[in-house]
Specification:
Strands 7, 8, 9, 10, 11, 12, 13, 14, 15 and 16 form a 10-stranded parallel sheet that branches. This protein has a 4-stranded antiparallel sheet with strand order 2-3-1-4, with helices on one face. 33% of the residues lie in helices and 21% in strands. β5 and β6 form a beta hairpin. With 347 residues, it is α/β, with parallel strands linked by helices. It has 11 helices and 16 strands. The protein folds into 2 domains: 69 residues, Alpha-Beta Plaits; 255 residues, TIM Barrel (Alpha-Beta Barrel). The longest helix has 14 residues. Bound molecules: phosphoenolpyruvate and manganese (II) ion.
């Protein structure tokens, strides 16, 4: 086996007419030489990511093996999440709901689970509006230790009930590796919050789970740092990752954060992973959430994650940016129209 620190160094692109046997032959030669091979079969081509010591890989006559079209070095610091490594865009599927490629994910729900009825009312509203998944914070990363920190385990029970009633998969944040078991009992997608984007132990932890990860960009992190954070997750074996642009810190004060929509376009070039946008935390106020959501769809995002509440004026967290649950249907229709213009359907 390749050493634990090895990264894929080479991309072996099989020719259009290559047979499965020829691909297997290349994989077998790599393994014999002590390298690992990761095969991706796309609609148009099959590619093999070769992982191993550089001199081992260099000793193999890869270009001469039958069926091989070309061999390329992977020059980027991220490897497994690099677009080159997967011939087709990754689609994350959870209980028949999809995000990625032609499917626009509409993830919606309260910022925080505050009490049962608040969450269930929101869940019904977003389900009726055709949402893809339900979001809701149980463990909240708050700037002030004196503000509401979430209901924790009790919130997970409410989310479980919301899923039973609506059928919507649950997206909720994992804040602490000590909660992984409890969170995994309820979460269908595990969120890593912006502030934990470079919590490398937490990233490795979710790299070993069998559920998709929603990884939010840190407010002061570069696009490359976001991709390297995703690589931490993928390296442990979990390649079901959704990236999320949620606004960054700049000198601009008119929004809560500066939504970096350019990063979405860059990420779509750089990675095969789906990329969604959080217009709620970027905007900080309700009136801006729809225009930013539409812009996200227009720039090519694979979905949005958005906050809604039955009575935002009473919300314990992020009230000014939450969409009233009874207005969510109209909001969702506007977003779905824009997504349709981009050739996508709500997943
Ligand atoms: C959230 O989505 O619940 C959240 C806390 O967002 P962020 O981590 O992007 O601040
Ligand atoms: Mn929030």
């Amino acid at each position: 086996m390749a050493s634990n620190n090895a990264s894929p160094e080479l991309l072996i692109v099989m020719g259009a007419g290559a047979t499965p046997d020829q691909t297997e032959h290349v994989v077998a030669r790599l393994q014999e030489a002590g390298a690992d091979a990761r095969v991706s079969r796309g609609r148009e081509a099959t590619v093999i990511g070769a992982i191993g010591a550089r001199d081992t890989l260099a000793s193999l006559p890869l270009e001469g093996y039958p069926g091989v079209d070309r061999v390329l070095p992977i020059l980027k610091p991220y490897k497994l999440v690099a677009r080159e490594l997967a011939p087709d865009p990754t689609v994350i599927e959870v209980h028949g709901r999809r995000i990625g490629d032609g499917y626009f994910g509409l993830v919606a729900g309260p910022c925080t689970v505050e009490y049962r009825e608040q969450t269930l009312e929101t869940a019904r509203a977003v389900a009726d509006a055709g949402a893809t998944m339900l979001r809701g914070g149980a463990f909240k990363p708050r700037t002030s230790p004196y503000t509401f920190q979430g209901l924790g385990l009790d919130a997970l029970e409410v989310l479980r009930e919301a899923r039973e009633e609506t059928g919507l998969p649950i997206v909720t944040e994992l804040l602490d590796p000590r909660h992984v078991e409890e969170v995994l009992e309820v979460a269908d997608v595990v969120q890593i919050g912006a502030r934990n984007m470079q919590n490398f132990l937490l990233l490795a932890e979710v790299g070993r789970i069998d559920k998709p990860v929603l990884l939010k960009r840190g407010p002061s992190a570069s696009v490359e740092e976001l991709l390297m954070a995703a690589e931490y997750v993928a390296k442990e074996g979990n390649e079901r990752i959704i990236l999320c642009e949620r606004g960054i810190k700049t000198f601009e004060r008119s929004l809560r954060y500066t939504l970096d929509l350019g990063s979405v376009a860059v990420l779509k070039e750089e990675t095969h992973l789906p990329v969604i946008v959080d217009p709620s935390h970027a905007a900080g106020r309700r009136a801006l959430v729809l225009p930013l959501a539409r812009a996200a769809a227009a720039v090519g995002a694979d979905g949005i994650i958005v906050e809604a509440h039955p009575r935002p004026e009473e919300a314990l967290c992020d009230g000014p940016q939450q969409i009233p649950a009874d207005e969510f249907g109209a909001f969702a229709r506007e977003v779905a129209d824009l997504a349709a213009l981009m050739g996508k359907q709500i997943g």
